[in-house]
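Example record

One chain of 788 residues, shown exactly as stored in the release files.
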Amino acid sequence: MRSIFCILSVLVLSSGVYAQGLDSCYHTLDELYEFIFDLQSDFPQFVQVDSIGHSRGEMLGHQFPLYSVKISDNVATFEDEPVNLIIAHIHAEEVAGMEATLRFMQKLVTNQEPYRTIRNQTQVYVVPTMNPDGLEVISLGLDNYWRKNGYVPPELHLDSCIVVQGMGEDSCGVDLNRNWDINWIYGDTLFVRENVEPFDYFRGPGPFSEPESRAVRDLALRIKPTVSIVWHSSRSGNVSERCIVAWQWGLDGNAKFAPDCTAIGIVNRGYIGKTIKHPGTQPYLEVIGATRNGALHDWFYRNLGTIQILTETSPRIDIQPTCDSLAPAPNLPGLAQTLIPPMEWLARRLINFPNGNDMQNQGSPVKIHTRNSLTGAPISAEYRILNSWSAILNPWYTNEEHGSATILPPPGTIQVMARKEGFRNDTNTVTVNPGGTTVTTTLELEPLPWYGLNFNVVNESSQAVSADVLVDNGYPQRYRYDVGMIELSKPEGVVHFRVEPLNQNLIARTFHFYHNNDTTVTFTVPTGTVLFSEDFEQGIGNWTAAGGAWRQTVDTTSLNYGICVHTNGPGYRENYGNNLNATFTYNNSLNLTSGNAFHLRFDYRGRLDMPGDSFFVDASVNGTDWQEVRGFSDLEKPWNRVWCDLSPWAGNTNVYVRFRLKTDNVLGDLGIHFDNIQVMGGVDLSSPRNPSPFPTEYALSKVYPNPFNPTTTIAYDAPASGPVEFSIHNVLGQMVWSSTEMPPSPGRYELRWNGVTNGGTQLTSGIYFVRMSAKGHFVGTQKLMFLK
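Predicted structure tokens for this chain:
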């Protein structure tokens, strides 16, 4: 282990003297560890300390442990109770929230109310410090305004970290609130000087590069908290005394908000009512976070549905107020006392345990249970709040132990859907009452039979060929096929395959079939001839750009793709514009008469403001009427190769292709880089592989036009005769129209709706939801926009 004194000998201080260190009432790192283990020793029935990881540790030559502390009445068991996670300390200098949290922990082990009820009916997890490296730096008095962890950039040597008294200029360390993978790309790069506090906001060499971030991420994925607090303090005072939640990306008037912003805002408003300034009598400010740069609260919401409140405490005078309780405010004892009520309120909010009327505007907590409908056993499954779900959200899951999750929706009516591979989806409608007690809804997932599914990939000579194979039955997975059969097991249902050969002389193919017995499939990929290729090394003169930037640029990634085309302008982190339908069209037509199998292949990377913005490949037989071949909408995508099936255009002598960027009216992003375009054609002796003459499963296929006025068409698939039920609901979940259709045989059908209720009342403009079910099972739902 490297001696700390050796490290101290190389520190450079702007003032020439060391910091004086914190006042004695602040816990050093050693004292913090002693506190949590003493609490566990004194209250073993309520307190459990677990190691969850370690610090980076390079700067001080020692990795410090990271701990979580669980406080609950049955501490050794993960119970079927909602979870609250408090991250007490993340930025080294910001210690006031940590001190308040330690006081809150002491209250949680008492028999006073409401702490006994909180302990008995919820599970509280505390990470006392997420940044032990930084806490040790200020504990040693090296720099009271140190912010980051102990990362040492490889551009430096270990003994050359520069620690500068005050804010900025510290050469080592990563800001742990910029190291999360959502929008990490927008964080500060190494040694950037754009901020008034240079170097202090470095995002790290990669998302989750830091062991501290990974440790807290893994803890969160395991315990799945419903709510969370992260304590901060504003070093400048510019953002002090604020409660910040996810998310507002972009400027006012051109911003995207979190899909559940209403629910998040209601919880934050109640929390703010208990968070009072010190000194003063006014509450903190309510803020929707505009940080689009790898922040925790955005990651927690997107990946877990957690309502996390970043609380910027501290008065504007001093980030580390005096310990003297008799001194004029602000002082730490007084400040810490003001921070306990919001922690208590948020813990009570999980069960709507009121103090007076402080829960009257909050919706009932909703506990979701997902069960196997045949056995009643709990299963972990993905759940969605259909009223607000968006493709930008990663799947949220009920927990493994109990198949449960607790959510805090706003008052009203919500639709909750659960899904899991191998089961039929289920959906329930739940009424959420203001100030109500917990409502439990159980989603019964009916298991499907599973069958063996084995496959090989061969060329026209029946020789095995290497390929990447996408197997998509609604739960897509990729497999690398080399030599030898891949043996899978998949549930009954339609399975789609895309076979992408690694040999560039072979044509990618798509296949699909209904899987209802043990099956072995051999996919044959034909040899192809290159009909067209483009690497842009000679410019873009063969292409016509319309709208947008569409410019040549040099790839700056480590993969070094050379010259490529970018959808955006040349500015640093320049975003594409709004309301674009920008096209990049190849000037010459392609003759697709030499076979029956054709694909367009290209490489791309980039970012889009999903799901509102998309990047398309289109095809046309006359250069005027275009059809979509394939679309992409990715928040973050590294260089990858994709295939687009042009076989439906086989037999045409003049086929045009284009790329298209379609954007909505708010917020842009860094756009798409693409390169190495190639069109190949050949003869697939197994073609034509026409789709089944009738549908193989119930599906709500599309609603068009949408938005609509005065009438829209609802298209659906039915694999059998018999009743199919449709209902339309408003945003409150109230049913405004219903119909039972009776398709006489398997097929694709349509029905029309004119915006009128079953009672003949014309509805107002707004958002509605059409829901389809058949044979007692939920099939699907789609959003409608009625414009008058």
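Notes: The domain at 699-786 is CATH 2.60.40.4070 (Immunoglobulin-like).
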